[in-house]
Amino acid sequence: MMEQISKLKDRPVLTSFFGWLLFPGMYLLVGVFTALGVSVETSFIVASPAGFLGFCCWVAAFIISSRQLIKGKNVAVSIVGLISSLIPLAFLGFAFWVAVNGGV
Q1: Helix count (H) and strand count (E) of the chain?
Q2: Per residue in 48-81, is it b (16+ CB within 10 Å) or e — as a string?
Q3: What angle do CA 86, 91, 96 make, to 5 degrees?
Q4: Residue 72: its pLDDT value, please?
Q5: pTM above 0.90?
Q6: Cβ-proximal residues to 93 (8 Å cutoff; 6+ apart), any chain
Q7: Neighbours of 89 (CB within 10 A)
Q8: pLDDT higher than 90, residue 4
């Protein structure tokens, strides 16, 4: 298990891909649980670790790709990893900014 995690530190695109799977998967799990009759609050509590892990994967991919880009390693892969992790982080930042400023 630890060997697989250590492989992710050299692959920002794969790390970002896991974020793209886990974060929307949280909302899918909430929908499935509520369709099965579980309350929304309980289903969100159960599914929220998937969203948190997805967010952490995006942040990790952003950091990994930034470090690789600065060091000059795998420039093309680093740019793709940077873009694939920057887009969801920018969207979440914008959603937070809208929520803080009273909505649209």
Answers
A1: 4, 0
A2: eebbebbbebbebbbbbbbebbeeeebeebbeeb
A3: 125
A4: 85
A5: no
A6: none
A7: 15
A8: no
